[in-house]
# Entry
Amino acid sequence: MDDKKVIIVADSITVGELAETLNLPVTTLIGELFKNGIVATINQRIDFETATIIVEELGLEDVELRKKAAAEPVARKVHVLSDKAVDRPPIVAVMGHVDHGKTSLLDAILDQKVVDGEAGGITQHISAYQVERKGRMITLLDTPGHEAFAALRQHGATLTDVVVIVVAADDGVKPQTIEAIRFARSANAKIVVAINKIDKEAANAQMVKTQLATEHNLNPEEWGGEVVMVEVSAKTGENVDKLLDMVLLVADLEELKADIDTPAEGLVIEAHMETGRGSVVGLLVEQGELKPGHFLVAGTAFGKVRTLLDFKGAALKSAGPSTPVTVTGFKELPQFGDTFTIVKSEKEARLLTEKTHQERERAAASTNVTSADMLKLITQKHESEDFNVIVKADVQGSLTSVMDSLRLIDTGDQVALRVIGSGVGNISENDIRLAGSSDTVIYGFNVELAPALKRLAMRDKVEVRMYKVIYELLDDARASMEALLAPEVVETQIGTLTIKGVFRTLKDEIIAGGEVTSGKAVPNVLARVKRKDEVLAEVEVTKVQRQQQEAKEVFEGEMCGLSLRTTKKLLVEEGDTIEFFTRELVKRTLA
# Structure
């Protein structure tokens, strides 16, 4: 008969909960984690596999952990249009390489200085806008161009009907241009190319068209192809109206429609916390009409729409298909990219989110330790340095991108970057205390640090580094990891000499002479004294003389005298070899 105590564990469990379940002092569990290289707190979460390893390491043979059956994720429904479907505005994503003028182009379209508000002059969120052209609405998504926001750009493409790929006429096709083309094709979106900056002296629109046609199979209409390409200048406004007309023309060919008389559904495009407002969530309505008072479910979060605002911040009574809106009222932050749906009541919303309770736990676990991390620490303790970080960002999309980008930093096997905590919102007291207990750097991205917390961080000697531009944050992380690398010892061979005679041997000095057989002999370097293949000692060359005059260097084939300083009694004989070399510590860098 099996008398084992069976414990059902979800995907993750806190250290405190596990200790209570195992009927052990929490300090025992924390100590066991610490022995295996995990600096844990009572509220830190560990996954099922890690918990299993710890139980085995504690020798608890009468306990068996079993994983709770996974809840089936709520599949996104494919909406079938009814015969009452109406025309809807096209959803247009603006993509391209950094600095090619995407946001400036939106500037010209919307007549507002969007780029002025962006740190470093680059877009770091998905921002949704609407513009009217000839009595028709167009929904525009401004997607980031910086390489670190690849995930955001891909997400942006999946929302869209038309992708406007902005290419600078004076710069041509770049890596993120190619990426945008790939994303647009994967989303089956129509492509319109805006060849921007035609006002510049170095502009060469034909060169851009040739690159796109020959290298990426995007053939301009005027060359007999199917891709609309418009030469524009965001700076002067030239052909911006033409670009919008072409977008509407391409969209008309797709016959874009949506149902209004159906429960609203769509996607989460932004989510962040605001003091006094709680969770502030950007949504894009795809079907139906969203109104204040509706109960929403988005992934593992739910709530009741308290306020419904358009992209300018004006209150709306309802929002139809293809409309970007900002809502408040979610109990917690939904995840970037979640599908939202309307339900009849809060009770129904709770039931739906309970189906993905395990996913909710993973999303809430800001200090989760994975089994892969655990196994690596157990088998490779102290073989690499750890750079521990906590990451806090203003919105979920930015947090995802920062985390993904940090993981992409190539450190080889020498430095392990460990994200021991992450979350959306301003840096908290808990973040400071967690960092102080685990020698951790806190990165804040577009968030704030209250003065009281700043003083606490200074008192506890916790480094808090605040950034508004992602590539500056990544550069700092890379530099910090490089600083942890042990310097490399580099030896540079200078020359060799064969001893022809020994003139004096003292306790700490040898004076000898010989012939330089390769390279050169120089003073103030290190040397090895070798007899055949055996190294007798390392010495310091303090003086080199040629014809009884001090010399800075003596070359191959020449005779010279040497003064060698040694730390032990050394007998040098005729025929021994002296190898001259330098040795220095060189700071290592990441690949």
